[in-house]
Design goal:
There is one protein chain. The protein is an alpha+beta fold. It is built from 5 helices and 6 strands, in the order αβββααβααββ. A 4-stranded mixed β-sheet has the order 3-4-5-6. It has a two-stranded antiparallel ribbon with strand order 1-2. Strand 1 and strand 2 form a beta hairpin. The longest helix has 10 residues. The chain is globular, with a radius of gyration of 18 Å. The termini are far apart.
Length: 147
């Protein structure tokens, strides 16, 4: 999600169809986000130095060592090559210290049991809905001087 957009603005952007190879299609971002599937969740990550190091191995970001895992001809044929900065192919998991929030779909947000599970699994992360409403904000204890 771009830094200059709110969750709601990004959600609205992702819902819009885009023109690709002459057809109006769902944006590529919708595949992995709880926009089309109300029973899914998305992970919101901090864009910090740790994540940048991980992304340096992403073939969509020009890493020649792993670039052969992406079908470059398919990118050209489908028109996705000009939009490859919106794609990612990170082959390992995202470190937990990079996760700042959980984005839940419309059916998940009303399922109290699932929300409790997410709170338990991601206790230091906020939980947000498609419209940008925060339904859980963790209490972060600040380290202070011992008395």
């Amino acid at each position: 999600m771009p830094k200059n957009q709110t969750m709601k603005e990004y959600y609205e952007f992702c819902k819009e169809k885009e023109l690709l190879a002459g057809f109006k299609v769902n944006r590529m971002e919708t595949i992995k986000l709880p926009i089309l599937s109300p029973l899914s969740v998305g992970i919101i990550v901090n864009n910090d130095d740790h994540l940048q190091e991980l992304l340096s191995y992403d073939p969509y970001r020009g890493n020649l060592e792993v670039q052969e895992i992406v079908n470059q001809q398919e990118l050209e044929d489908t028109g996705l090559y000009s939009k490859k900065e919106r794609l990612s192919a990170v082959l390992i998991g995202v470190p937990s210290n990079c996760i700042s929030g959980i984005w839940v779909g419309d059916k998940i947000k009303i399922d109290k049991e699932k929300i409790e599970q997410l709170k338990s699994l991601f206790s230091k992360s906020y939980i947000v809905t498609n419209d940008g409403s925060i339904i859980y904000m963790p209490i972060i204890e600040k380290a202070g001087p011992e008395l």
